[in-house]
């Protein structure tokens, strides 16, 4: 049904053995001990790319941004782009089985699938609350989705076995931290988050829930670590989160081709301003390579392709190699399964 790739390499293993610590700074130093997560060492760990497109437009081949980390039977979601429920179904994941959801930011491409995910989970009989973490506004996003779903939900309530209102099954958390902090732990994983630079060039007005921010996430599982950049440009905060990690699941953009494509659609857009936005608030191939190299990353998985229609993703490989000569680089496609352990 979907492709599977084994990503362990001898270099990865050798370097892994040499690493003695995975803590990422003082913010984590007081957090739960790594010993709590060693039961996951013997557990299968996979990353499944549910949606690899980027930007709030429908794509003929790639679904909207969504990722899944599976640790044994536990399932963690990073971003809920449109079509995520369908993609989870294709990956044979039962919707009520999710353990936690982590949303990187509120751009449509990362959130539009949340409502259907909540609806289908409720219909399928989820029986314990699902924690949903995200930036400021996440509580409001979940509350408003639940409100919308009540319109059809009250009809289904007459046709389904007894259950509470949809809002009862989802618990949202707003996260806005400038340094990496642990936001979630269970017996399998410890998740850290930090606000990144995705909105660094725009002036945002304060909303009822505070100022908008965008997040990057780090999952520590046993002695293995995976960072999901979400949408972001380079930043010290992202560096701190990624330091000494093993696998980087990164967005990537080509400023020239994406600027040309947007300019073609919206004639009054200023190319210079737009290109500056792409370079400062997204990851170019050079920045992905530099981040991976200075962080000691063993494997880079590319997703969320911000590229024009004629740009070939393969071009990114050579561009990254200039700064990241040795580690593995994977060009992600929808429903790719990358075996971590
Ligand atoms: Zn995006
Ligand atoms: Zn974005």
User: What series of H and E elements makes up the topology?
Assistant: EHHEEEHEHHEHEEEEEHEHHHEHEE
Name of the top-level CATH class: Alpha Beta
Radius of gyration: 19 Å
Present as ligands are: zinc ion
- Annotated CATH topology: Metallo-beta-lactamase, Chain A
Number of domains: 1
* Adjacency order of strands in the biggest sheet: 1-15-2-3-4-5-6-7
As a percent range, the share of strand residues is: 15-25%
Structural class: alpha/beta
Q: Identify the overall geometry.
A: globular
> What share of residues is helical?
25-40%
User: What distance separates the N and C termini?
Assistant: 20 Å
Low-confidence parts: 1-41
Overall pLDDT confidence: 88
Main beta-sheet annotation: 8 strands, mixed
Helical segment tally?
A: 11
Assign the CATH architecture: 4-Layer Sandwich
Q: Report the count of strand segments.
A: 15
The CATH H-level superfamily is Ribonuclease Z/Hydroxyacylglutathione hydrolase-like
Keywords: Hydrolase, Signal
Signal peptide: 1-29
InterPro entries: AtsA-like_MBL-fold, Metallo-B-lactamas, RibonucZ/Hydroxyglut_hydro
Pfam family, one: Lactamase_B_2
Overview of this structure, please?
- The protein is an alpha/beta fold and 341 residues long.
- The chain has a single domain, classed as Ribonuclease Z/Hydroxyacylglutathione hydrolase-like (Metallo-beta-lactamase, Chain A, 4-Layer Sandwich).
- The chain has 11 helices and 15 strands.
- The longest helix is centred in the middle third of the chain and has 19 residues.
- It is globular and about 60 Å long.
- The N terminus is likely disordered.
- The protein binds zinc ion (2 copies).
- One zinc ion binds next to loops.
């Amino acid at each position: 049904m979907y492709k599977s790739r084994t990503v362990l390499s001898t270099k990865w293993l050798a370097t892994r053995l040499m690493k003695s610590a995975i803590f990422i700074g003082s913010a984590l130093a007081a957090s739960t001990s790594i010993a709590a997560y060693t039961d996951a060492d013997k557990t299968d760990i996979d990353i499944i790319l549910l949606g690899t497109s980027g930007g709030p437009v429908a794509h003929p081949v790639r679904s909207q941004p969504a990722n899944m980390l599976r640790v044994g039977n536990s399932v963690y979601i990073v971003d809920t782009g449109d079509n995520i429920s369908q993609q989870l179904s294709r990956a044979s994941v039962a919707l009520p089985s999710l353990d936690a959801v982590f949303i990187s930011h509120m751009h449509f491409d990362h959130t539009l699938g949340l409502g259907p995910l909540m609806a289908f989970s409720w219909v399928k009989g989820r029986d314990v609350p699902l924690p949903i973490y995200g930036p400021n506004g996440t509580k409001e996003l979940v509350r408003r989705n639940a409100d919308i779903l009540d319109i059809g939900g009250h009809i289904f309530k007459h046709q389904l076995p007894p259950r509470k209102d949809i809002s009862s099954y989802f618990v949202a958390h707003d996260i806005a931290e400038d340094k990496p902090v642990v936001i979630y732990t269970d017996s399998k994983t410890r998740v850290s988050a930090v606000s990144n630079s995705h909105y660094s060039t725009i002036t945002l007005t304060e909303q009822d829930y505070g100022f908008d921010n965008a997040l990057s996430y780090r999952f520590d599982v046993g002695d293995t670590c995976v960072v999901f950049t979400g949408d972001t440009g380079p930043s010290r905060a992202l560096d701190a989160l990624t330091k000494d990690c093993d696998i980087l699941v990164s967005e990537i953009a080509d400023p020239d081709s994406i600027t040309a494509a947007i300019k073609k659609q919206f004639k009054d857009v200023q190319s210079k301003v737009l290109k500056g936005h792409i370079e400062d608030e997204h990851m170019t191939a050079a920045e992905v390579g530099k981040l991976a190299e200075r962080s000691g990353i063993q494997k880079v998985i590319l997703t969320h392709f911000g590229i024009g229609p004629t740009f070939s993703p393969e071009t990114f490989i050579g561009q990254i190699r200039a700064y990241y000569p040795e580690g593995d680089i994977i060009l992600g496609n929808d429903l790719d399964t990358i075996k971590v352990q």
